[in-house]
Amino acid sequence: MSLSRFVFLAMPGDRGDEPTPDGVAWMLISPNNRPLGRSWRLFDTYAACSEAVAELRVGYDRIRSHSAVADTHGHWAWRIDLDGVPVAGSTRSYLRIRECGYNLECFLTATPVARVVEGARSVRGGRWRADDEARKLAR
User: Fold this and answer.
1) What is the pLDDT of residues 20-59, one digit of tens each?
2) Cα–Cα distance between 36 and 109 in angstroms, integer?
3) Residues pairing with 8 in the sheet
4) What CA–CA distance (Å, rounded) separates 111 from 88?
5) Cα 58 from Cα 40, distance rounded (Å)
6) For an engineered disulfide with 36, which of 28, 88, 118, 131 has Cβ 3.0 to 4.6 Å away?
7) How far is CA 135 from the centre of its chain?
8) Per-residue burial over 17-50, b = 16 or more CB atoms within 10 Å of its CB, e = otherwise
C-alpha cells in the first residue's frame, strides 16, 4: 500500500510588496497525489524545512487545529498550530465546513505515518502567498 509523503518545494518567495529570496516549503501529499496540507511559511534552507517536518511529527500530540471562514464568500480553511505557533494550513478553501473538517482529518491521519521524501523539487513560477485564504485564519 502506498503512503502519503512529505515533499519539499524550492520556490520563489512572495511576502507582500517586497520580493524575497527563494525559500523552501513542505507539502503533505496523499497516495493519489492530492495535496493534503502545506507548511505555514517558507524556510530559508532545505535543512530548516526538513527540521520543521520532524518537529511537527515529534510534537504531533501537542498540535491544535482551527477551522474558520476564510473569505467573503463563506469558504472554509483550516490551520494547525504547534505549541501556539502556526505550522501548517490547508492548500485551498472549502465550500462546506464538513469538507474542510474531512480534509483536516486526512491531514492529521497522514502526518505521523507519511514518509519523508529526501531533497527538494524546484518549482518555477510557484508562489507561496502570505495573503491566501488559509493565512487569514491567523488573524
Assistant:
1) 457 899 999 999 999 999 999 999 999 999 999 999 999 9
2) 10
3) 26, 120
4) 11
5) 17
6) 28
7) 10
8) eeeeeebbbbbbbbeeeeebbbbbbbbeebeebb
Contact between residue 76 and residue 93 where contact means Cβ atoms under 8 Å apart: yes
d(CA 94, CA 85): 23
CA angle 124, 34, 121 (to 5 degrees): 30
3-state secondary structure of 99: helix
CA distance 133 to 130: 9
Strands (DSSP E) contained in 16-124 are: 18-29, 35-39, 63-69, 76-82, 85-89, 115-122
Q: Do 56 and 63 meet the contact criterion of CB atoms below 8 Å apart?
A: yes
pLDDT digits (tens, 9 = 90+) for 60-75: 999 999 998 987 788 9
Contacting residues for 4 by C-beta, under 8 A, at least 6 apart: 28, 29, 30, 31, 36, 110, 113, 114, 115
Q: Whole-model pTM?
A: 0.81
Q: Please, what is the average pLDDT of the chain? A: 85
